[in-house]
From TrEMBL:
Highest taxon above the source species: Bacteria
Xref: InterPro entries: Cyt_c-like_dom, Cyt_c-like_dom_sf, Cytochrome_c_Peroxidase/MauG, Di-haem_cyt_c_peroxidsae
Organism per entry: Acetobacter cerevisiae
Signal peptide from the UniProt entry: 1-17
Cellular compartments annotated: Cell envelope
Cytochrome c domain span: 208-266
Protein name in UniProt: Cytochrome-c peroxidase
One term of GO molecular function: peroxidase activity
Amino acid sequence: MRSAGSVVRLLAGVCLASVFWSAGGAARDAQAATVPEVPTPNAAPLSEDEARIQLGRRLFYDADLSDDGSMACASCHEQRHAFADGMPTHPGITDDAGVRNVPSLGNVGALKTLTWLDQHITTLEQQIATPVFGYGPVEMGMPDWATLLHRVSGDACYQKLFARAFKNENGRIDARTVPEALAAFERTLISQNSVWDQAQKKQARLPDDAQRGVALFFGQAHCAACHSGPLLTDQSFHSINAAHPARVRTPSLRNVGVTAPYLHDG
């Protein structure tokens, strides 16, 4: 419990602060006279590539890319989960149950295929249509490109951002430039400085229990038969067992500590 004296001093401080922030011009003018003007350096303009990444980031976090304005790409791909979401599956805007676990987007620009089961989606620009327009199940529920482009192109801020990011196209907002901007941002989501990486460079030492895990992973447990290479995935599709004949892509084990639950079905 505070003493009476401390309460009085606290109230006095609050009163003084309220005078400073809400009193008339005299108090503000006196304070302003003592604060020197801080010069603002001339910031270098963004390159077109940098402007495209910043535009893509805004699109990634914009729920207006969904039909009812309730779901952004970031609604499922959360940074704290290495751009997964920590759920077995994620319902879309219609609340229909999802059917696939949300994959992490860490190092997604280095992947050869981009969904759990479909081996034909090989670029980020292609993949964007699946959550935005897909209906098996409905995720973001946007009916078509015309609706999305009408919404984006009607935003004055987007008009300026596209003009900076696509100068050679005169700031065109269309079914090519929107995916290109999103993909440019997603390719910056790089994870390559774990303790494991540092140990490979002789910059850190793995704890003893991790070293025992390494011996198992690359030895008796045969984990590295599928989880290989710098991304800890062979990027191939495998049948899990006879009860599940569909071939599923080997997930990367990058950031595995924050991407549970696992596998394609969570």
